[in-house]
Amino acid sequence: MRPMTLHKAKGPEFPHVFLAAWEAGVFPSDCGDADEERRLTFVALTRGMRRVSISYCGFRRGFGAPSLFIDDIPDAHCVKGSFHAADQRRDAARGPVDRRRLPNHLRKALSKAAKKQGGNEAH
To answer: What is the CATH T-level fold of the domain 7-82, as seen in this structure?
Structure first.
């Protein structure tokens, strides 16, 4: 796999294209040129010869809603899915995470997220 920017993707085609971080506020950017980013979206979506995979986070420091550009893709061209259930099964098989072994900044972030969601943080 070779990462590249959307600007560099003009021209070449690839069997599979992976587009990450398609969250509102990230792509399109809150401070970018929306028309240019829409053109780049078209470029990105037309570079995949067989498949284009789009991913976005459910939570990313204040972002988390899917990009509005995803709604522009006709449903006939989409297979929507989630890795959430598979991730839960995998994580359950691994057992609980020993947070004491995590770096301090990750422990703080997990604690803050748990408080935000109203859950109790397990140590």
So the answer is: Rossmann fold (3.40.50)
